[in-house]
Every structure is written in C-alpha cells, then in structure tokens.
Amino acid sequence: MLLPIFGLSNSVLAAERIYASYSALERSISVTALEDFATKGVINEDLEVYTHYLKPAQLVELRRVLLSPIKVNAVAVSQFLYTSQGEFMLRRLGEVVKTDSRQEQPGFYALRSALILAAAEPQGLSLLNLLRKYPSSSIHIDLARTLGIASELEKLVSETDKAIAAVRQKSDTEAAIAGPVNFSQLPDLKRKGRYASQKVELRFFDTPRKRFLLTDVYLTNRPGSAPVIVISHGLGSDSSNFDYLATHLASHGFAVVLPNHPGSDAKQLRSLLAGSTSDVAQPDEFINRPLDVKYILDQMEKASQSDSRFKGRLNLQQVGVFGQSFGGYTALALAGAKINFEQLQKDCQPQTLKDTWNVSLLLQCRVLELRGKDNPQEYNFQDNRVKAAIAVNPITSSIFGEASLKQIQVPVMIVGSSDDTVAPAIYEQIRPFSWIANSQKYLVMLTGATHFSAIGKGKQGSEQVALPSEVVGDNPSLARRYMNVLSLPFFETYIAGTSKYLPYLNAAYAKSVSSQPVGLSLVQSLTSTELAQALNGEIKEVKP
Predict the structure, then answer these.
(1) What pLDDT, in 10s, does the model give residues 359-410?
(2) How many domains are there within the chain?
(3) Residue 379's closest CA among 314, 288, 278?
(4) Strand ranges (E), 242-354
(5) 124, 174: one domain
(6) pTM of the entire structure?
(7) How far is 109 from 225, CA to CA, in rounded Å?
(8) E strands present in 233-285
(9) Are residues 132 and 221 in the same domain?
(10) Domain that holds residue 21
(11) With contact defined as beta carbons under 8 Å apart, do 27 and 20 qualify?
C-alpha cells in the first residue's frame, strides 16, 4: 500500500541474469539459478562453472548471504535513501552494480527502487530479494571495482582491528604496571547506590531560538547540594534512552539532567520517515545542541533561587556531561573543543567524500553550510561550569580535528565500539584520542559492540524507531552496564571530588569487569606514534 507513495510498483520488471565482468572477460548466471541454489541447494549448469573457483565453505556462505534477511521498515529504507547519506551509499553501490545502459543515473534509480521493494517483502531485505526486484532484465556487476571496494573495506577493517589490538595490548601493559588490585574489597559499582531519587519533568522555551526543551531532572535525596550530570542523547533517540544511566547515577548522589534536543531526536527521525523532512538533522543542530545545554543550566540556576524543589539541592558549578553519538559531539563542544572550519574545508572536498567509507563525515561536512553566518562566539561553546565530559561513539575527526581537541583542558573519557559503522572507531575515537593533550584522559574500547549498543530502551509509546538486533549488536545490556560502572567513578572523581573512586579509573579495573561477548579495554595514554606503529605492524609488546 505504501509503495505507490514513492512512485514504485510491485509489477516492475525483475532481473533475469547477472553479468559479471572483469576487464574484457564477462560471464553470466541466471537469477533463477541463484534462487534454486539458495532455496533448494541445487547447482545447475549455470552455476556449476563457478564451483571450480569456490571452496565448499564459500558455497555455504554464498547460500547464507543470498537468503539472510534484514528485517527493516520499507518506508524507513525509502526515506533514508532519499537523504544525502542514503544517496551517497547508493552512488557507491552504483559504481559496481549497473543496468544494461551502464549509465550512472539509471543504475542509481534502479538500485533505490530494488532496495525499497525488497525491504517491503514479508521475508525482509535479502540479497536474493534485491536481485528479484531489480527493475531491469539484467544486472551488470564490475568485478574489478567490486574487488577494489572489497579491498578498501578490508583495509578499513584491518586497520580498525590493528588499532583495537593496540589499545587492548596497551591496556594489558597499563594493568600490569598498576599491579594487582583486589577490587572485591572495594564497593561494587554495578550495584544501586543508597540514595532515593525523584524524576521531575520540566518544560523550557528558549524564545530567541524558538526551542521547546522538554527536560527530565532526577533529584536525589543526598544531603546538601548535589553535583550535576547532563546526559545528551544521540540522533533519533531521546532522554528516555538513558534513564538507566540517570537512575544509576542518581542513586549514588548525583542530580541528573536529561534534555530532549528538538531537531535531532526521535520526533525528527519520525518526520524523516513520514516524508515531511529529507534531513536526518539540519546543520544548525551543531549549534543548537550545546546551546540547549547552556540554556537549561542557566534556567536551573534561576530555579535554584526561586523554586523550592531545587533550592540548595544543585551544585551547578560542578557539572559533568555524558553524550552518545551526536550527544558525544555536544559533550566535547561544551568541554572546550571548537568547530574547526579549516579542517572541515580540507576533509570535505568532493573527491575525499567520494572515496571515504566514514559515513559520519557526511554529517560533519554539513557544518560548512553554517560558515559566514554571524556568530560572535565563533562556534566556541565551552561552558566553564562543565568540569569533565564522557563522549560515547562521538563524531570528532573533522568537526574538531586535532587542533580543536587539543584545546580541551578538562578530564575527558572517549568510548568507541569495534563494530561501529556509523562513526568508525579508528577515525572518530581512537586516532582523535591520541590528539588530546590533556593528561587526564581515558580511552575505552567496547569490542563486539556497535554504534547503538550503549543506547537503552526508550519509553513505551515514544516515537522511536525500533532497531534490528543485528544493528544493536550482541548483549547491549552488558554495554550499558559498562557505561554505569565507568561513568560513576569518572564523575565521582572529577565532578564530586571523591578521590576514593580513582582506583577504578584504570586498565586493571576494566579488565576485572570485562565479560564476553562485549570485551572492555581502557587506556590512559595512546600516542600518535604508537598508533602509527600498530597500523604498520611494528608495535611490540612492552614489558612492565
């Protein structure tokens, strides 16, 4: 019923044959032969020639790949493919998959149509369904370019694996140097704290910016004024996704503030799916998000003077910020990293974007649209009330670059995930961590986690779009537990000023709580030289 909205029909011409070319050589195979092989295991004469080049295990894998479905919403797929990020991915695929005409534009539209129609199938989006729905009698695949792209992706995966291995090895070395620590004799940070908390919903309206800021505040019954933690959600989510962390921190005596950022929240994603917007987020959100936090802190200061619920209960001069994804950017901006237009100008050249596999760069480059607008702050959103920041899966490489990350003077923790395809760890967390000059810094790697693993479940009835388990990753509850047990000692040490929590902020503690299938590593130092050596295969084990 929804397909005609996007100008598509279920009666489109389906592909009958696939032509694979390599230099001057071209071979073909019928889609029916692939279908019989995938569904029945039958190898007919069309496919038999290829069995001479493939091992039995590879044939098993080919059959699995042809049939493995991804359960996605057809409308969501459609709307994503009409965004700049979606069109970017289509153009990359269009380099290797073409129609009979071999022209770029027809192939672009054919791929978009096939993906949307395949996603609408009851079995879900699979390679076989994609072939069935391709609106041309034949598909032409450039094997040379396919192998080239495969090589590029293999290099990215290889470099990421080497970088994560270097972090893990450095973590083992730091743990050995620290010596044995009996963490069983220290408080268990996984446990709920002794304080009760009350959740208050506040409604603010920033008139000059026309921003309605629905904000959740967790107030604790801790005596005196509580240090404050702000949690900034990522794109397409909202404050409810981090109730788990807010509840944990509040039970240990923190007041926790969770803004909802309009324009980059769950409602914005719903608008994208409904077709009322074609942008994941407007460039202005890079300005508005940190200004949201500043405005809310200002309003909380006023409320502390006049509202009996808050009087004497908040220490708004000792604020920590936790942010995930776009929220990670927000946290680092408030901590002192300024938007770096010079770096963006360098990284956002057409050829660079054409060749990149870092999808987050597409979002970062949109900030260039803001250049030239009057802004007396020069896009510096540092807030002196913010004394420490945690950034989980942040985008950093070009929006800040080395020059701006070096300006961060407060303690900072960067968290990356090995299987993050949205903000790849090597580009957006590991290498940027090596640029931070501040000695009070921590790099945390979650091995086996994705970009979405640390995001908690949203409230029932919210406007959020459910993510498939393959996208969320294995055991996200374990990733969320890591957020609890690392955020608590970090903010206790650098916001509450409780020195007894410092022993938890080291590689030995991370090693002691690490559990499969999501491994945990922490390092306090990783230089650009060490990272370069790891990528070149030169890093050697360091004995304590």
Answers:
(1) 889 889 989 988 766 554 568 899 999 999 999 999 999 999 999 999 999 9
(2) 2
(3) 288
(4) 255-259, 314-324
(5) no
(6) 0.82
(7) 59
(8) 255-259
(9) no
(10) 3-136
(11) yes
Strand partners, 198: 219
What are the start-end ranges of the E strands in 186-313?
197-206, 211-220, 226-232, 255-259
Q: What is the strand order of the sheet 412-417 is part of?
A: 197-206, 211-220, 255-259, 226-232, 314-324, 386-392, 412-417, 441-447, 519-523
β-strand partners of 22: 25
Where helices occur in 307-340 by DSSP H, the ranges are: 326-335
- Alpha-carbon gap, residue 114 to 312, rounded angstroms: 60
Q: The tokens of 57 are what?
A: 């295990």
Contact 381, 291 (CB under 8 A): yes
CA 170-415-520 angle, to 5 degrees, is 55
Cα(347)–Cα(355) distance, integer angstroms: 11
How confident is the model over 139-151, as a mean pLDDT? 72
Domain shared by 125 and 183, yes or no: no
- Residue 149 inside a domain? The answer is no
Residues in the chain: 544
Q: Give domain status of residue 30, yes or no.
A: yes
Are 132 and 163 within one domain?
A: no
Residue 146 in any domain: the answer is no
Max CA pair span of the chain? 82
H-helix or E-strand spanning residue 141? strand 138-142
pLDDT at 541: 42
